[in-house]
Every structure is written in structure tokens, then in C-alpha cells.
Sequence to fold (566 residues):
Amino acid sequence: MSMFRSSRFWSWIVLSLGILYFALPLIGTFEFSLRMKRGEYSFEAYRVILSDPRFQATFMYSVLMALLTIVMGVLLVVPTAYWVRLKLPRWRPVIEFITLLPLIIPAIVIVFGYIRMYNTSSIVPLTGTAFGTDILMVAGYTVLALPYMYRAVDTGLRTLDITTLTEAAESLGAGKITILAKIILPNVLVAILSGAFLTFAIVIGEFVFAALLNRPAFGPFMQLIGANRAYEPAALAVIAFSITWLCMGLMQLVTRLQKHTQVKQFR
Amino acid sequence: MSTITESAGATAPIPLKPRRSLAWLGILPFLLFALLFLILPTMNIVIGAFQNPAGELTFDNIHKLFQPSILASYWISIKISLASAFLGCLIGFAIAAAIVLGGLPNWVRSPIMTFSGVASNFAGVPLAFAFIATLGRLGLVTVLLRDWFGINLYAHGFNILSFWGLTLTYLFFQIPLMILIITPALDGLKREWREAAAILGANGFQYWTMVALPILWPALLGTFALLFANAFGAVATAYALTGSSLSIVPIVLFAQIRGDVLQDPHLGYALAFGMIVVTIIANTIYLWMRARSERWVKS
Fold:
């Protein structure tokens, strides 16, 4: 019994130290972000940063990139995961391996490859125009999100009997596109949403792609502010952390909803 | 037992002999996308590492990687990745063990797992800001330590823009990642094993060294490799924290791509190729160890 008690004692010690390590930077950042006005705490740093036109422009740009990435990811991943499960089970290891590659190859190497492959003197000079570079940005972010998106959707499909659903729909005269849009998509919507929130959190503050492709995104803007200002970076960190929290919170909420509906279905 | 589950798995519908069908056309868009935006760009870099500016095959670029300044960047990158992976594993394990085995109340677990999910994704520029605001020269902890306890961190040689500063910052996403991965493995330790060991006369230390750790070590080593790769490829946090004052490989490569240094694009390809080699080794260890540890966790 005494041994049990001592182990619980040490557990609390470990946990408290852990909480201290994780809480201090968050408290420290918040406290620092309030120090802009001398001698008093204020939200001045937030006011300055939120009214900066570059903040608004880069933030909106990154939100747009994130949304386009989510759309692109869904269009690419849902039909593929569905088709592999339905018709090409032998291809599954190959596809899964490809979706894991972005976790293995560093992002900086991928973007370096883009710059080499799609530069102005290449056959497809995408980096020559802002629009072309934006295509590369969305493609690159879709690659970064691929591991999470594919896993989420594939797990979502596992709970469905897609063969039966497909046959039933076909016998009622539905084409493949109709099946995907009206049967598969609604059924994996929760999985898609959970992948989408994670994608959003990753893309919104992404730095390497945007900086090296030279696009006006939120990540490079934060870095620029960090290099030149004192208190605004802390305010930006608080904002960025809130966005990450919000995305993860929504993700958890959505997953819980899924469990709930599943229980209902089985009943 | 295992033969039954295996044969049950084998009864899953196996597609009949595939005739020459056009089914593969369905994944063509995906394959094309992966080829254009993932595989070919990476291959391009790898091939570039073995070419001279005239496009001929050469090992010169790889050879140039072994000059002292570049070796030094790889070495400091590897040291930071090792340090943050090792400490991340150790501390993450301690916290996960406290949650799973330490007799803490149940409500502790869920918020910690949720927070770990968030913090493991909170890398990048804002994380660097958070640590500057906390442990920088005017940061909260620096100031409090000085005013309350009379400890002047910076007089003792500490600097957030240094090796240990960067390692301490990386731990903020390394520890949560370890907690997320190792908690299920700790859940897999069966109570019966501990009881069986106790009945056979083993004390707590013997149970850990002779039963639990041998079962857990593939998971531990695998996660260590994953954390290593995670730190090795990180650019944004380091760049926002130290600028280019700490020349770890990703930052040298970043500067090279921007055209600031080296003046030799093909050396840049070799640098990137070296990064791929290191992360491939680390990830291979991870995947291999994960396959080994799943044997125990599943059955």
C-alpha cells in the first residue's frame, strides 16, 4: 500500500512539472503580449497587429489557401480512397505508402524540388506568375495534408459497406459521380471535416513553402514581425495558438459527433 | 489463438482474377498528382545532387558535403535532434506512465491527451515567439527568476538563441508527440503480466527491466526515431528563433535556396539529398519498430 502511495506521489510530481513546462510559455506569451504600454497591461499589441493592413491581407490569403487546399484534398482523396477500397485493393499498400511520403521527405526538400522543376526556364514555368505560384502553393499544401486527409477518409470508409452501397445505387441507375457525391461523401463527411480542421491548422501558419515561393502568406508575415518588433509577435503567437486550439477543438467535437451517430446507427 | 484470427482475416473477399480492366484509371488523377507534386520534384533534387552544372554524372557535390563547415551543420542538426528526441522520449514517457500506471484520477487523462494533440501541432513561427516571450532576455520566466530568486539566467550563459534554447523549444512539440504515441503502448501492458511477475517473486524494478521494457523497447526506439526525424526537418521554429545564427542543415538549405550563401546550386541539392537520407533512415527505423511493437500491443 505504501509503495502504491509513493508511486502516486511521484506521478503528481511528474505531472506538475509537465504542466509547469507547458503552461509557462503560454502564460509568458500572454503576459508579454500585454506589456506594450509602459507601466500597465493593455491589449495595445493586439490592436496594432489587428489593424495592420498586412495582417489582414496575409491572413485572408492564408485562409484562402487553406480552403482551396481542403477542397483539393477532398477531390483527390475521397474518390481515390473509395475506388481503391472498391476495385483496387491490391493497390492499397502503394497508395498508403505514397500518402506517408510527405511525413518522410522534409517540406523544404519538396519546395526546393518545385523551384527546380517549375522555374521560369522550365517547360511548365509556374513560378513565373503569381497565379502559377499559387497553384504550386495549393499543390504543396495538399501534399503536406495528404497523410492526415487520407488516413481520416480511409478510416471513415472502413465503417461503411461500400460494395453494397455502390451496388444498391447502381441498381437504381446512379452513375459513379452521383454515387460519390450523394452517397460516399455524406457518409464520410465527419472524417473529411476532421481532416479539414487539421489541414486548416497546418496551412494557416505554414512558413517554408510561402517564404521560399515568395507568396504573401501569414507565416512569413509573422516571421517578419518577429524580426522587427518586440510585443506584437507575442500577440501573434496568442492568436495563432487560439486558432490551433479552435481547429483541434472542432476536430474533437466532430469526432465525438461521429461516435454518437454510429451508436445510433447500430441501434 | 493467433492462427484463428489469421484465418478469419484471410476469408475477406479476395477479388477474382483481374481481367484486363480499366479500373486503374480511377486512381490516375491521384497518381498523376503524386507524381507531379511529390515524387518527381523529390527525384529532381536527388538527381541534381549527382549532376554538375552541365548535367553530367558526378559525385563531386556529395564529396563537397564533407567539407568542415557543412559537416558541422549536419553535426549540430543531429545533436539537436538527438537531444530533443531523447529528452522528449524520457519526459513524455514519464508523463504517460504517470497517467496510465501512476494511480492518478481518471479525469486527468482526457485533457492531457487533448492538449498533446494541440501542442504536437503547435510548431513553427508562433512557438518561437512564445519561447522568446518566456525565456528571452525580457521574458516572463527570465524576469521572475531574476527578481524573485536572484538567478540571472543570461549571466549563467543561457541563451534562448542557442543549442539548448532550441532544444528546450523543440520539446514543446516533442513531448506531446511522445505522449500521444506511447500512451496506447502503455495501455497494452497487461495487468496479468505484472501480477504474474509479482507471483514469481519479481519486485517492481525487476518487472520493469525484465518484462515491461523488453516489450516496450521497440515502441520506444521507434518513437525516438520519429521524434528525431521530426526535429531534423523542422525549419520554421529554428528560423524564427535564431535567424541564421545557428547554422543547422535546414537553415543552411533555406538560406541557400534564397540565394544567400554557397553560390553553388548543386551543393544545395546535395544538402537536400543528405537531409532525405537522414530522415529516410530515421523513418525506416520507426516503421520497422512499429511493426515489431504492434505484435505485442495487438495480441
